[in-house]
Amino acid sequence: MILIHCPYCEEARPEVEFAYGGEAHIARPVDPSTYSDEQWEEFLYIRNNPRGRHHERWRHTHGCGRFFNAVRDTVTDVFETTYKAGEARK
Amino acid sequence: MSGFRLADGGRIDRRTKRNFTFDGKAQWGYAGDSLASALLAQGQMLFGRSFKYHRPRGILGAGVEEPNALVTVDRGPGRITPNLRAPSVALHDGLTATSQNRFPTLKTDLIAVNNVFSAFFPAGFYNKTFMWPRAAWEKVYEPIIRRLAGLGDSPTTRDPDHYDATYAHCETLVVGAGPAGIAAALEAAAGGGRVILIDEQEEIGGGALSDPAQWPWLEEASAKLAAMDNVTVLPRTTAIGHYHQNFVVAAERLTDHLSVDEAEGAREKLWRIRAGEVVLAMGAIERPLVFEGNDVPGVMLASAAKTFALRYGVAVGRKLVVMAVHDSGWRDALALHKAGVNIAAIVDMRRDVASELIEGARAARIACYQGYAVTGVSGGQAVKGVTIALAGVGKGQKIDCDAVLMAGGWTPTVHLWSHAKGSLRWDEAWGAFVPDKTHEDLRCVGACGGAWDYGKGLSGGLLPAPKPLHDSKAFVDFQNDVKARDIGLAVQEGFRSIEHIKRYTTNGMATDQGKTSNLNGLQIASGVLHRPVTEIGLTTFRPPYTPQSFGAILGHHKEALFQPLRKSVIDDWAAAQGAVYENVAQWRRARYFPQGSEDMDAAVARECRTVRSAVGVFDASTLGKIEVVGPDAAEFLNRMYTNPWKSLEPGRCRYGLLLGEHGFIIDDGVSARLAPDRFHLTTTTGGAARVLNMMEDYLQTEWSDLDVWLTSTTEQWAVIAVQGPKARRVIEPLVEGIDLSPEAFPHMSVREGKICGVDTRLFRVSFTGELGFEVNVPAEHGRAVWEAIWAEGQKHGAVAYGTETMHVLRAEKGFIIVGQDTDGTVTPDDAGLGWAVGKKKPDFVGKRSLARPDIVAPGRKQLVGLLTDDPQAVLEEGAQIVADPNQPVPMTMIGHVTSSYHSATLGRSIAMALVAGGRDRMGETLHIPMPDRTISAKVVAPMFYDAEGSRLNG
Ligand SMILES: [Zn+2]
């Protein structure tokens, strides 16, 4: 059971309170209609799958309900850091 | 008779006898005995039959590593536990244990196939057998193998026991209470922090329990620990796994050591412990040696014989031979000699053995054979003697004995270290992997950390033998019957990775997870491959450390507590009316209300007819509801849903369609605009949480500039649907402050007022095609309002109807149910809902995807209606549809049935289906092949009743 630090609650809580939200820092285009099929495919489906540092979204579903970002090592499952949505990539 | 009780010694209580049975025969032992020690004391050598070959097997170890002596303990109906290791079963009065995998008895096993069938069971046997003809496998081989191979039987009745669970937090958790663990606990406790010390055995002490010289110290340390408020000592508790951030799960056995009469309360307790620091003090397990005949009952680990003698006062034989490649074998032999056990000889592969060991042995008049190896064991069900030879190949000589002790060196118990993803390094002196690095606050002390002086030895358990490896019947994995030659065969057949060799041979895959076999298997593979063990690697250890009951893992989460059952406030009323229920997501919903002896079909037909001819009342409270509030509420919904929302006037409702960004339908529902800045959204019953999460996601992360608040109100509102031509007459007398006339309150509108004196949001909507209302009232008034509507309804012949009737009525109108008529690959156009997509909207979630090439390509599956040629044939939902029923198998399937019912209103069956190019097939006859016949059906529009919609007005 991983403990995850919620940057809004400022507390480490058990992972059962959280829901994974996929890779972070993939912004929805302001006007999707300007995207080519290839660009849209990239936005919709193409994701990084690194061995090591991974930027990902989590939601403190059974807590404050906020979405935030995290850097997790996919080998060790260690969370390097968590930070609020909207903050720059770490 | 071989083993016997020594005149004195041991930690047993010789004044307290314990009576028990083994295979139905009355036996006895002392308090403090294990099942294994008590039986050994009675001369029992044969404990079980092996997994594949039914070879007779005895005791190998004195602890959890025991692979052979697996027993079933019977504590009454539903309380039968198979595969318990006899050395770990505490003796108590009335213990009823039986041996396993024998037929009909342990001594006379009619399917002792060791010679007859052994050619059937080489490495990879299962893989190869699966390639035989399937019919042969099912009819011939599987029944034979099921009889031959196996462990204990699982209980056939429900487990009546209950299991406790708890969370615990501490600064230091120590796993293993041998000398190193106790020292670590005392040191940590002195600092004042909370300390938990757990140990799998009946009492703490670990290796010290087998060393009387340490008993005074042990007693003192135990008393000290017991006196400290900040220390919790948990014996009979196994740490089954280490998980992230020092989260250790441990199972405490509370009653299995007691007689059935004494047992009270929970059987086991699962501890979920979060520790600041974890100290692993799990010791080391002695390795067997691999030589011909090493599985004859009476061949066991030297350390086990020492434990039986010094802890339990039991000699495992009258004349013992020690086969060692390690100093510890000599030390144990001398300790046994001192305890009164007769050691005839010590055989050691090494020529150079420390002189004090040799002197000690000579002083004890033990014959010493350095440079020799055991090359054979005589005896079938018990050891009668051994053959030894110089360097394992010289001229053999026989030594009479009734037990052989193996001292093959030691393997640190690194299981939990590995669970924690700690790395291992090969230690040449140990001939084993020892802990290296970890990112957890975790350390190993004592033997499991590689820090204990066991003396010196050779690594590699395979003894030299006159026979080549491919002829060797020496066993590596006792529990899975893996021989040295199987590992050789696996390599010969091309397997190189230890992970593959493990799976091909099944070495280390039994319930003991290779505690005594992994290292020997690895080193044999290393030898055959001519590559160092470090290049071959070790297989991964995974939880649980020892087999664990599912009961403890489940804890209280069973039956009614398995998962929450959500009930609406009208549920009790439905129960009193004899409703039959179905579960929808976590909700329990009334499916139909049978009267008298009605079956479902009859009840549903009556409910449908009454709704269409008079009126019906339906509990729709489970609908997901979200209150969307704020100045940007309309803009937000406009971006989320396919429909236009900004133009919707307050007081009006709209059917909303929600797509994923991929363009496929994921939810729908009718929503109302109550005020310019306030919407009452509804979602599907199962989709409420998912939709709210999705909306929060967009609101928080994509459009955080929008000023909108979302609140789940699913459980705040009870919803009573009143549907049918008489619906208005039913609610009219109860409603205040709302003009219900068709002109003032048209279809798809909402009004706020009072019903039965309670605030209501009254929707005029219809999921049946009839004149309909949905009465929303605060949940606490739901039951009272329902009863008032019900009483009024009785004047107009109302029925209460359930979800099944609701499904039929909506299908007659072609209304889809998301998740039934859609499956996550259906676009609005596929579902015939293109009209719900706002064409002028520049953007909404999923819009861009609706222009993708695959989405606009012709031939997509489209929702259509089906009318069977035989009007009474009701298609099966999920049935596949073909265009030509005479084509050869496998046929080309062009779609499937999504909804299908008998319609009482129409007097025939109706169905909806997703069919490739469906809307271009109107009038075409398609075919639905079933096991017994092929059903033909005509493609029609998915609208079976009142196409013009006139009934909406009552
Ligand atoms: Zn939070």
TrEMBL record, chain A:
UniProt GO MF annotations? sarcosine oxidase activity
Tell me the GO BP annotations in alphabetical order: tetrahydrofolate metabolic process
Alphabetized NCBIfam families for the sequence? soxD
In Swiss-Prot or TrEMBL terms, this protein is called: Sarcosine oxidase subunit delta
Q: What is the lineage of its organism?
A: Bacteria, Pseudomonadati, Pseudomonadota, Alphaproteobacteria, Sphingomonadales
TrEMBL record, chain B:
Q: Which UniProt keywords apply?
A: Oxidoreductase
Query: Residues in domain SoxA A3?
Result: 472-553
Q: Which residues form the signal peptide?
A: none
Q: Where is the Aminomethyltransferase C-terminal domain?
A: 861-946
Q: Which residues form the FAD/NAD(P)-binding domain?
A: 173-427
Query: Which Pfam families does the UniProt entry name for this protein?
Result: Fer2_4, GCV_T, GCV_T_C, Pyr_redox_2, SO_alpha_A3
Q: Which residues form the GCVT N-terminal domain?
A: 571-841
- One GO term of the biological process aspect: tetrahydrofolate metabolic process
Among Gene3D superfamilies, the record links this protein to: 2Fe-2S iron-sulphur cluster binding domain, sarcosine oxidase, alpha subunit, N-terminal domain, FAD/NAD(P)-binding domain, Probable tRNA modification gtpase trme, domain 1
InterPro entries given for it? 2Fe-2S-bd_N (IPR042204), FAD/NAD-bd_sf (IPR036188), FAD/NAD-binding_dom (IPR023753), GcvT/YgfZ/DmdA (IPR028896), GcvT/YgfZ_C (IPR029043), GcvT_C (IPR013977), GCVT_N (IPR006222), Sarcosine_oxidase_asu (IPR006277)
**One Gene Ontology molecular-function label:** sarcosine oxidase activity
Matching PANTHER family: AMINOMETHYLTRANSFERASE, AMINOMETHYLTRANSFERASE, MITOCHONDRIAL
Q: Which family does it belong to?
A: Belongs to the GcvT family.
Q: What is this protein called?
A: Sarcosine oxidase subunit alpha
UniProt organism field? Novosphingobium sediminis
What gene name is given for the protein in this entry?
soxA
